[in-house]
Every structure is written in structure tokens, then in C-alpha cells.
Amino acid sequence: MSITSASLPDLLAFDDPETLPALAPGIDLPRAQAAIAEFLRALGRDETDPHLLDTPRRVAAAYAEMLTPRETSWTTFPNDDGYQGLVLVKDIPFHSLCQHHLLPFRGVAHVGYLPGERLFGLSKLARGVELFARDLQVQERLTQQVADWLEDTLAPRGVGVVMEAEHMCMSLRGVQTAGTMTRTSVFTGLLSDDGPLRGQFPH
Ligand SMILES: Nc1nc2c(ncn2[C@@H]2O[C@H](COP(=O)(O)OP(=O)(O)OP(=O)(O)O)[C@@H](O)[C@H]2O)c(=O)[nH]1
Ligand SMILES: [Zn+2]
User: Fold this and answer.
1) 203 assigned to a ligand binding site
2) Labelling 161: which of 37, 43, 149, 179 has CA 20 to 30 A away?
3) Which Gene3D superfamilies match (predicted)?
């Protein structure tokens, strides 16, 4: 089987090669494809089985996609009206990959901030979650990274990030406790103290 980087659009199986995103730094699709082929052999699988023939390509492309955030612009606006209240986007669906088992964890994020001089376009809060979730992660680090990014980008008066997720490494294997949800949270600035504003976050 020949593996060339020229077949990138095929590897990712996007309909339109023009929309092919740049892959996250360090991802080498042909190498990943070869490694998955070897992994299947190590699991004792018959690589000539028709259903398995294209599986190394598919798996490499799937992991590349799950590890590459979509590109976006990070639009902010001046807070001309001096809005002082909480901006909170709730129930942002996200998925990530557990750094320990390479299995998905998925759930929802609630991301909010108390504006200073700048406002984010609302969609950017959801895109910010994706920016850090499309990585090999642990949930605590992911939550902290989203909070740090908001702090660094907006210099708001406070930030709150709450993430709730089910880890497939706990559901499908090991302890096998399907349905358990792990909640992590980071609150900074004026949201550090528990109070009515912080009470607007799901708890
Ligand atoms: N803190 C934290 N732990 C995680 C996360 N994702 C997975 N883990 C845990 O990482 C741990 C790895 O533990 P090990 O004992 O080295 O691995 P293991 O033998 O596969 O553990 P079991 O899952 O208990 O079978 C497990 O307890 C997982 O539940 C995460 O996002 N944060
Ligand atoms: Zn895991």
C-alpha cells in the first residue's frame, strides 16, 4: 500500500479539497496510517479482510481530525456601552481525547466572563473550548486552559469555566461506570467568590 502526503484530501475524506484544514502541528498522516496498520497486526487482525483494508487510513484521518481545531478569527468588540453583567454561554457541546487511553471524553462546557473593556463575539467562547479540546487532554488542564485563554485575550473582571464530561475510559473499560459525569471548574477574579453571579453557572 503506498502512502503519500499527496493523498491528504483522500486521507481526510473531505468532500471538497479546498476546505481541507491545516492539520495541527506535528501530525504526520502517512506515519500515523502505517502505525495503525501495525497496531492492527499486533492485535492479531487480518489486514486483508475487505473491511480492514482502508481502516488504517480512516483511523489516522479520524484522529487527525479530532486533534485539529477548526481555524477561526478571534473577533473582539469594544465594550462601548459599558456592559457590566455576566456573559455566559451554557451547554457548549465538546469532545476531547483522554491523554491516558486515547479514548474520547465528551460533554458540555459553560463559559462565562465579566467584561472589562472588550467583548468576545459569542461564538468565540464555543470556538475557544474547541481550540483546547481538540488535543490529548485531561479534563482539569482543559478547563484551566480555556480560563487562561479568556483571561489573556480579554482581560475581563472575572472568568468562569465549568466542564462536565463522560470519559469513555471509565465507561467502556476499566472500572466500567457508564454514565458517570466528571465536573471541573475554574473561577477567577470577581467570580472567585461564591455569590449570585457565580450561581448563574450550572451547579
Ligand atoms: N485526573 C484525571 N484523570 C483522568 C482523566 N482521564 C482519565 N483519567 C484517569 O487516569 C487514570 C490512569 O490510571 P492508571 O492506573 O495509570 O491506568 P489504568 O490502569 O488504565 O486505570 P483504570 O482506568 O482505573 O483501569 C485513571 O484513573 C483514569 O480514570 C482526566 O481527565 N483527569
Ligand atoms: Zn482515559
Assistant:
1) no
2) 179
3) 1.10.286.10, 3.30.1130.10
Q: Going by C-beta distance under 8 Å and a sequence separation of 6 or more, which residues neighbour residue 75? A: 120, 121, 124
| Nearest ligand to the C-alpha atom of residue 139 | 1
The domain 5-66 is placed in CATH, from the list 1.10.286.10, 1.10.110.30, 1.10.132.30, 1.10.1740.10, at 1.10.286.10
Query: Which tens digit of pLDDT belongs to each residue from 21-76?
Result: 589 999 999 999 999 999 999 999 999 999 999 999 999 999 999 999 999 999 99
68 C-alpha vs ligand 2 centroid, how far in Å?
Answer: 19
Q: What is this model's ipTM? A: 0.95
Q: How far apart are the first and last CA of the chain?
A: 52
Q: Which residue has the cell 480555556?
A: 146
- Give ranges for CATH 3.30.1130.10 in the chain: 76-200
Per CATH, is 76-200 categorized as 3.30.1130.10?
A: yes
35 vs 41: CA distance, rounded Å: 10
* 176 pLDDT above the threshold of 70: yes
pLDDT given for residue 4 in this prediction: 36
- Whole-number Å distance, alpha carbon 86 to ligand 2 midpoint, is 34
The answer to whether 96 and 104 are in contact (CB under 8 A) is yes
